[in-house]
Write a structure and sequence with these properties.
By secondary structure, this protein is mostly helical. The chain has helices at 10-27, 34-41, 45-51, 55-68, 78-98, 112-122, 124-150, 160-178, 184-196. It has nine helices and no strands.
């Protein structure tokens, strides 16, 4: 059957997402205006709104693109691989925390992340979109953990989802609640602590 309608312009998508990321980083969520994104990207407002009907939808698409830019490497060392990945998550969260807050390094607000969490809680469609984005991305790291379990690097009873919940949940708790640093040092300590409970027991 022939496809109906005009094919989607992927080049326009790229321009929109690049412009949206720049706007979000410069102005933060409060100053993130969809019409300005359309103007910077050189597309009609209707073109943008057909793809992403609200500011929330567009912001989620930007987050998804940022996630896709981070590789999930499997070198065979599950501790090193998870530490590197957790650090990359932390870097992205810190970047979102500082969006639109140049010169306010002491501000511990969660910034864009908190705004998206709130939007996901308020609007069921945004919440479903956020969950779908993270579910798609998390499949990669869950597969990494599962492979480590299969080769004996982790206990056979290890639940990949529960293990990753401990890692990601701790990052978001620090970002959204305590405001404490999330950096390489914390990633190393967090992964080591989580894996200590997942290592297979060794006989003396």
């Amino acid at each position: 059957m022939a496809q109906r309608g005009r094919p989607r312009d992927t080049e326009a998508d790229e321009r929109i997402l690049r412009a949206a990321l720049e706007q979000l980083m410069e102005y933060g969520y409060a100053g993130f205006v969809v019409d300005k994104v359309a103007e910077q990207a050189g597309v009609a407002k209707t073109t943008l709104y057909r793809r992403w009907p609200t500011k929330d939808h567009l912001a989620v698409a930007v987050i998804a693109r940022m996630q896709d830019d981070v590789a999930v490497l499997d070198t065979g060392d599950v501790c090193a691989d998870l530490t590197d990945y957790v650090e990359q998550i932390a870097l992205g969260l810190n970047r979102m925390r500082r969006a639109g807050r140049q010169g306010e390094e002491d501000d511990l607000s969660a910034g864009v992340v908190a705004e998206l969490v709130a939007a996901a809680a308020r609007h069921p469609d945004t919440g479903a979109l956020v969950r779908a984005v993270f579910a798609r991305r998390n499949k990669l790291v869950l597969a990494l953990i599962n492979r480590a379990r299969q080769r004996g690097a982790l206990h056979s009873a290890t639940d990949p989802g529960l293990l990753f919940d401990q890692l990601a949940g701790a990052l978001y708790y620090r970002l959204l609640i305590t405001g404490q640093p999330i950096d390489r040092s914390y990633a190393e300590r967090l992964v080591t602590a989580a894996l200590n409970g997942a290592r297979p027991l060794r006989e003396n």
